[in-house]
Specification:
Elements: E1 13-17, H1 21-32, E2 36-41, H2 46-53, E3 58-61, H3 67-76, E4 79-82, H4 87-99, E5 103-106, E6 119-123, E7 126-130, H5 137-153, H6 155-174, H7 178-189, H8 192-199, H9 203-215
Parallel strand pairs: 1-2, 1-4, 2-3, 4-5
Antiparallel strand pairs: 6-7
Helix pairs in contact: 3-4, 6-9
Length: about 220
């Protein structure tokens, strides 16, 4: 069963097998997340070549049907992305990843993939990720759009997001005991006055009220 997770990719190694359109989009996505990206392919898109010339990613020109070449590059990776239109190559990559216990995202086969790369959006620190796990990328994208529209229109919730970010940041500075801090979060969550201040977006007033709870 797949478990939804947000994983830090800063400094991680990501191998992309396939240098076409899909491989390019995956490469740029992980590049933006701070990963070390390597692309294995016989041909590369113009975008990949440009980023490689800027020293932002590594291109390995080679035939992915070469099992030893695949194995060597998979060994380097923390995550492998499969993005070719050759079923034999894709199967070989999946097999090697399973043998070597490497997570893989198969952008060509939603049923076989171990890691799903969802459609995602963010507003005021609220990140939303949506996937239909292969049912339809179009439906997933439309679903994300509707969710983001609802969030943007909910002014009170957006105010609360801003207030809670400020309050949590301050409490982390002044309350070092984790259990005490979590207790304060729960107390504030059920406090009518605090919630009123948060819904109205009164950051300073909410901070002062929260600090009064710390001092009690």
């Amino acid at each position: 069963m797949r478990v939804p997770l947000f994983i830090e990719f800063e400094g991680r190694n990501v191998l992309i097998v396939g240098g076409g359109g899909v491989g390019t989009r995956r490469a740029l996505k992980f590049l933006m997340a701070g990963a070390h990206v390597r692309v294995l392919s016989l041909e590369f898109s113009n975008d990949l070549v440009r980023h490689a010339e800027q020293g932002r990613l590594e291109l390995v020109k080679g035939d992915a049907r070469d099992v030893e070449l695949l194995r060597k590059n998979i060994e380097w990776a923390d995550l492998v992305v499969i993005a070719t239109n050759d079923p034999l190559i894709n199967e070989n990559v999946r097999r090697l990843c399973r043998e070597m216990r490497k997570f893989f995202n198969d952008a060509t086969n939603a049923e076989e993939t171990e890691v799903v790369v969802p459609f995602e959006g963010e507003i005021n620190g609220i990140r939303v990720a949506v996937t239909t796990e292969g049912l339809s990328g179009i439906v997933a994208r439309r679903t994300l759009s509707k969710i983001m529209d609802v969030l943007r229109e909910d002014r009170e919730l957006m105010n609360m997001a801003i207030v809670w970010y400020a309050v949590k940041s301050r409490l982390k500075e002044v309350v070092k005991d984790t259990r005490r801090r979590l207790s304060l979060y729960m107390e504030l969550d059920s406090d009518d006055k605090f919630n009123d201040l948060a819904r109205r977006g009164l950051v300073d007033d909410a901070l002062n009220y929260a600090m009064s709870k710390v001092q009690n």
